Automatic annotation (TrEMBL):
Membrane spanning stretches: 12-33, 40-64, 84-103, 123-143
Keywords linked to the UniProt accession: Kinase, Membrane, Transferase, Transmembrane, Transmembrane helix, Two-component regulatory system
Higher taxonomy: Bacteria, Bacillati, Actinomycetota, Coriobacteriia, Coriobacteriales
InterPro entries linked: HATPase_C_sf, Sensor_HK_TwoCompSys
Biological process, per Gene Ontology: phosphorelay signal transduction system
Protein name: Two-component sensor histidine kinase
GO molecular function term, any single one: kinase activity
Matches recorded under SUPFAM superfamilies: ATPase domain of HSP90 chaperone/DNA topoisomerase II/histidine kinase
C-alpha cells in the first residue's frame, strides 16, 4: 500500500483517466479550430492547448509516481520538477478567464476552477485535501473531453467545413472525373471510380486524357440501338453524350463538358437506368401500337366491305319494296283493263315517283305512309291504319316499309282488297316497351305448306326489323297475319 489514500491500483486508474482525457483533448483541438471562424479559432486554439497541457502534466505525474513508488502529497509535488510545470496552469487559467468573459460562456467556469486548484499556490493552501481535487479533476475532464468529442461530431455533420465538400463529392451518386489535357487527372470521386472499375477501365489518377475515347468505344454497340429506337437523349448529341450499359444491368449516361479552351474536361456519369428502361418499353409499345394500327386498318377495310354489302342489301330491299309496289298496282290496272286517260295519267304519276321513293325523298314517315295508302287506293286496295307511327324516325320508316311490302304481297299474291294495319305500344314482362304492328288482309291467303320466303320480301322485312332489335313472326297464313315488335327508344 502506498502512502496517502491511494494505492497502486487507484493511481493506475487515475493515470488511465488522465491519459484518455489528454488523448481526447488532442483530437478535440483541431476539430474545434476547424469549426469556428478564423478569429475564434485562433483564440480557442491557445486555450484548448492549455487544457491539453494540464491533462498531459496530470498523466505524466501519475506515471512518474507509479514508476518511482513515490508519495502523492501536495508538498512532494511542489518540491519536484512538476511543481515548476504547474505554473503553466496559471497562464491557462488567466487566459481562460478572459476567454470566458469574452464569449460570455459560464460553462467554462468548472474547468477553469479545477485548473486553478492545480496551481502551486492552490496546492500549498489545500495541503492533504488536494488528493480529493485530483480525483474530481480527472473525473471532470474525462467527462468534458468525451462530451466535447461528441459535440464536435454532431457539429461536423451539421456544418460545412473544408472537408465537407470533399466528402460530399465522394458520396454523391453522380460520377465525377476532372482531367487536364495530356496530364494527370485532377479529381475522381468514388462513384466514378466504381463505375470505371465495373467497365474494367483505369481508376487511378494517372493520365486519363483519353478516357472519353475509351468510353466511346464501350458505348458504340448501345448507340446503334438507341438511334434505332429514336431516343435522342440517350443516343447522344454530337460526341458529348454516351449511353453505356454496365454488366450489372444498369445504364449510365456519360456527359462531357470542355472547360478553359479545351485544357480541362469535366466528365459526369449519371444513373439513367429507369429512364433507359422506360424509353425501351416506350419503343416496344410504339411498335405494338404500330402493329395494332395496321390491324385496325385491315379491320376497317373489312368493315367497309361489310358496310358496302349491307348498303347493297338495303338498296335491293328498297328496290324490291318500291318497284314491287308499283308493279303490283300496274298488274291490277291491267287485270281490270283500266286503259282510259285518267288511269294512264295515274300510272304515269306512279312511275314518276319511283326514283324519289328509292332515294327516300318522300318526306317524313307519315307522308310516306299517306303516299302508300293513296297509291294502293288507285287499284281498289284499301289500307286501313289504326294507331300512330312512333316518334323515332328510323323505327317509323321501317314500319312504313313493312306496311308497303305487306300491302304489295296482299295485292300481288292474295288478291286482297283490304289490308288492316294496327299500330300500338306494348310493355314486355321485363319492363321494356315495344312498338307493335299487326297486319292482316282479306285475301286468299297461302297454303300451309307454301314457301313464304320466296318472292314475298319476308326476308328483307325480317332483316330490317331485327336490325333494330325487334322481331317478325307470321301468326297465320290463311288469312295472312304478321306480328312485329320493335323496342321503343
Amino acid at each position: 500500500m502506498m502512502p496517502g489514500v491511494f494505492n497502486e491500483t487507484s493511481l493506475l486508474l487515475l493515470f488511465v483517466g488522465s491519459f484518455i482525457s489528454c488523448c481526447l483533448q488532442l483530437v478535440h483541438v483541431p476539430l474545434t479550430a476547424a469549426g469556428r471562424n478564423r478569429r475564434l479559432a485562433l483564440i480557442g486554439l491557445f486555450y484548448e492547448l492549455g487544457v491539453a497541457n494540464h491533462l498531459f502534466l496530470a498523466a505524466d505525474y501519475m506515471i512518474g509516481v507509479l514508476s518511482n513508488t513515490g508519495t502523492f502529497a501536495a508538498d512532494t509535488i511542489l518540491a519536484s520538477q512538476w511543481g515548476h510545470f504547474l505554473w503553466g496552469n496559471v497562464i491557462t487559467v488567466t487566459y481562460g478567464i478572459a476567454f470566458c468573459i469574452y464569449l460570455k460562456h459560464p460553462v467554462m467556469i468548472p474547468e477553469i476552477t479545477f485548473m486553478a486548484l492545480c496551481t502551486p499556490p492552490a496546492l500549498r493552501l489545500l495541503g492533504p485535501s488536494w488528493t480529493i481535487v485530483a480525483i474530481l479533476d480527472v473525473a471532470y475532464f474525462l467527462f468534458r473531453t468525451t462530451a466535447a468529442i461528441c459535440v464536435d461530431a454532431i457539429r461536423r455533420t451539421e456544418k460545412l467545413s473544408k472537408l465537407s465538400v470533399i466528402e460530399a463529392v465522394n458520396v454523391i451518386p453522380v460520377g465525377i472525373l476532372a482531367t487536364e489535357h495530356r496530364s494527370a487527372s485532377a479529381l475522381m470521386n468514388n462513384t466514378m471510380r466504381d463505375t470505371l472499375g465495373i467497365l474494367n477501365l483505369p481508376t487511378d489518377l494517372g493520365d486519363l486524357s483519353d478516357m472519353w475515347e475509351r468510353l466511346d468505344r464501350v458505348a458504340e454497340p448501345l448507340r446503334a440501338i438507341a438511334n434505332l429506337q429514336g431516343i435522342p437523349l440517350l443516343s447522344g448529341e454530337g460526341n458529348e453524350k454516351l449511353l453505356i450499359r454496365l454488366p450489372n444491368d444498369t445504364y449510365k449516361l456519360f456527359t462531357r463538358e470542355i472547360l478553359e479552351n479545351g485544357e480541362r474536361h469535366m466528365t459526369l456519369a449519371l444513373d439513367v437506368t429507369d429512364l433507359a428502361l422506360a424509353n425501351r418499353n416506350l419503343w416496344r409499345a410504339n411498335l405494338d401500337l404500330k402493329d395494332a394500327t395496321e390491324a385496325i386498318r385491315e379491320q376497317m377495310s373489312l368493315v367497309g366491305l361489310v358496310a358496302e354489302g349491307e348498303a347493297h342489301l338495303k338498296m335491293r330491299a328498297r328496290v324490291h319494296d318500291v318497284v314491287g309496289q308499283r308493279l303490283s298496282i300496274i298488274h291490277r290496272y291491267l287485270e281490270e283493263q283500266r286503259i282510259d286517260n285518267t288511269s294512264v295519267a295515274e300510272l304515269k304519276e306512279l312511275i314518276a315517283t319511283v326514283m324519289n321513293d328509292l332515294r327516300g325523298d318522300a318526306g317524313d314517315a307519315s307522308t310516306a305512309l299517306a303516299a302508300v295508302v293513296s297509291a294502293f287506293a288507285l287499284v281498289g286496295v284499301e289500307i286501313e291504319v289504326t294507331g300512330e307511327l312512333p316518334t323515332n324516325p328510323r323505327v317509323a320508316a321501317t314500319l312504313v316499309d313493312v306496311i308497303r311490302e305487306t300491302a304489295t304481297n296482299a295485292c300481288k299474291h292474295g288478291h286482297a282488297h283490304t289490308v288492316e294495319i294496327q299500330l300500338g305500344r306494348k310493355e314486355a314482362s321485363h319492363g321494356a316497351h315495344y312498338v307493335t304492328l299487326v297486319a292482316h288482309d282479306d285475301g286468299d291467303g297461302m297454303a300451309k305448306n307454301a314457301d313464304i320466303t320466296s318472292g314475298t320480301g319476308i326476308t328483307g322485312m325480317r332483316r330490317a326489323v331485327e336490325s333494330l332489335g325487334g322481331f317478325l313472326e307470321i301468326a297465320s297464313k290463311s288469312p295472312f297475319v304478321i306480328n312485329i315488335g320493335i323496342p321503343e327508344r
